[in-house]
Design the sequence.
């Protein structure tokens, strides 16, 4: 998996982001997390290989998550779809 | 296609509809870059904020300006990516995220979620494979005619809803006899 890790001092939660490299709201979400010092990992589903992409689609399908980006999976259970700073603040205790 | 060209095209399009482009220059630039990338990648400017299949006919509803732009700008003051915004949103200086209007079934079909189709984009093969499913549809309100697999989400001319489209059955015999 072409997963990129962004280091941060806040590591209490496991934050994984499915995103698109071309999408403005995905970029905003990445910047927001970085600004808040949250450590997270992301995967751009448009620039990865088709196999990785298929795996990502299967994962989202298995989680019944909407196929919209950005899509965050926090601690393997909470799903946040879209750029929603309030929901991130709440879920991550920022 | 240069970034300037992409920008000009979007500006003209916005103007013709009485819209504006996103007021945040950095955000706008990212979206235009995204459109440029997608045009180079797929051969058509697929929506930068949606996952494209790479199949022209399956992505047709999300080729910018997408089928959902006008109803979204009308209801939310911005399109899904917030590339296009209305006067009020432009004046406020910032657009808010807009919920996805594209029906999940369309996306499922495009991405092959409803079947075990390969999700490998092969544009040429795709055009051939799906071309046969196209039909003529006309808008009962304004008469606009389109040739695709199903009517557009809204009529691009008069903005009538999809339900106001009907299949146009032509009899080619009339022309040949
Ligand atoms: S949501 Fe906006 S940027 Fe995306 S395809 Fe539609 S009109 Fe273009």
Sequence:
């Amino acid at each position: 998996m072409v997963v990129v890790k962004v280091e941060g001092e806040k590591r209490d939660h496991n934050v994984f982001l499915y995103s698109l490299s071309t999408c403005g709201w995905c970029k905003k979400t990445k910047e927001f997390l970085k600004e808040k010092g949250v450590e997270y990992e992301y995967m751009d589903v448009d620039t990865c290989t088709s196999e990785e992409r298929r795996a990502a689609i299967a994962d989202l399908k298995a989680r019944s998550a909407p196929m919209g980006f950005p899509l965050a999976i926090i601690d393997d259970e909470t799903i946040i779809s879209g750029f929603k700073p309030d929901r991130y603040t709440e879920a991550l205790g920022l | 296609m240069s970034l300037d060209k992409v920008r000009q095209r979007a500006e003209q399009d916005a103007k013709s509809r009485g819209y504006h482009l996103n007021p945040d220059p950095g955000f706008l630039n990212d979206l235009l870059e995204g459109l440029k990338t997608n045009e180079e990648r797929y051969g058509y400017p697929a929506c930068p904020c949606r996952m494209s299949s790479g199949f022209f006919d399956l992505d047709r509803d999300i080729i910018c300006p997408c089928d959902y732009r006008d109803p979204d700008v009308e209801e939310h003051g911005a399109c899904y990516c917030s590339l296009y915004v209305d006067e009020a949103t432009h004046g406020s200086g910032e657009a808010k995220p807009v919920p996805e209007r594209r029906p999940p079934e369309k996306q499922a079909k495009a991405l092959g979620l409803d079947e075990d189709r390969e999700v490998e984009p092969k544009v040429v093969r795709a055009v051939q494979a799906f071309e046969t499913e196209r039909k003529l549809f006309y808008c009962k309100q304004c008469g606009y005619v389109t040739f695709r697999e199903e009517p557009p989400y809204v009529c691009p001319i008069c903005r009538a809803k999809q339900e106001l489209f009907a299949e146009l059955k032509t009899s080619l015999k009339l022309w040949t006899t």
Notes: The mean pLDDT of chain A is 94. The pocket of iron/sulfur cluster is lined by residues B 47, 49, 62, 64-66, 69, 79-81, 83-84 (CB under 6 Å). Chain A has one domain: 4-85.
